[in-house]
Amino acid sequence: MLITARRSTATLTGAALLLTGAVSAVGLGAGAASAAPRTTALAVIADLSAQRVEVADQVAAAKYGTGSPIDDPAREAIVIADAEQQATALGIDPAAVGRIFRDQIEASKVVQRALFAEWDADPSLVPTTKPSLATIRAELNTIDAELVQAIATAQPGIHAPSCGGLLTAATVHARHAQGLDTLHFAALLRSLPSVCAD
Predict the structure, then answer these.
(1) How far apart are CA 130 and CA 40, in angstroms?
(2) How many CB atoms lie under 10 A from the CB of residue 73?
(3) Which of 26, 41, 51, 191 makes a 20 to 30 Å CA pair with 165?
(4) Can you give the C-alpha Rg of the chain in angstroms?
(5) What is the C-alpha separation between 149 and 45, in angstroms, rounded?
């Protein structure tokens, strides 16, 4: 992660509240398994989603102080449309992929809003370098293409009754493997509720 500034107490408290709600949304319980094989397709989805919420730090740094809004409906529509087009090419349900990507986008905004609030409260934490938003978007495009492919590969597991438990294990594994803090774990949980089919 490029930005490693300490999290304020207020931010951590807010993230903990988000975490509680997100756990309920995804269906991750306290008794969930703590690890999952990284070779499973659901584990790949969790890992890529974790990478995506980490990149949100760079998005926030690129936008902060520029007037660029966190909510960008036009850009979000492009991301979702691209994912749906890739899904169609791979022969999977584009609407389901669209739902997953809406959650991915909302997860990114969880991180961005928290960082904006933190930097507003303590300007000494504002990053001293501003990344290129175009470069970040290229990185996100790569992650997104891999994520659509992982969703396609995971189709049998996504539609299996065991999906929730396996995704729980994969999510916890991704958190520990990538060293996510409370905020980013809350965002990771927010990114995943649409993965398993009803």
Answers:
(1) 36
(2) 8
(3) 51
(4) 16
(5) 9
Closest CA to 83 of 42, 63, 75, 159: 75
Q: Do 113 and 64 meet the contact criterion of CB atoms below 8 Å apart?
A: no
Cα within 13 Å of Cα(169), Cβ side:
14
Rounded to 5 degrees, what are φ and ψ at 95? -65, -40
Q: Which helix (H) or strand (E) holds 108?
A: helix 94-121
Which SS3 state, helix, strand or coil, does residue 4 take? coil
> Identity (one letter) of the amino acid at 117?
A
Q: To 5 degrees, how large is the angle CA 14–CA 184–CA 103?
A: 95
Q: Provide CATH code, domain 36-190.
A: 1.20.59.10
**Sign (positive or negative) of CA dihedral 13, 107, 76, 63:** positive
pLDDT in tens, 47-60: 999 999 999 999 99
Q: What are the C-alpha distances in Å from 40 to residues 6, 33, 137, 151, 174?
A: 33, 15, 27, 11, 12
In the block, residue with structure tokens 């926030």:
60
Angle (nearest 5°) at CA 116 between 110 and 120:
150
pLDDT in tens, 145-191: 999 999 999 999 999 999 999 999 999 999 999 999 999 999 999 99
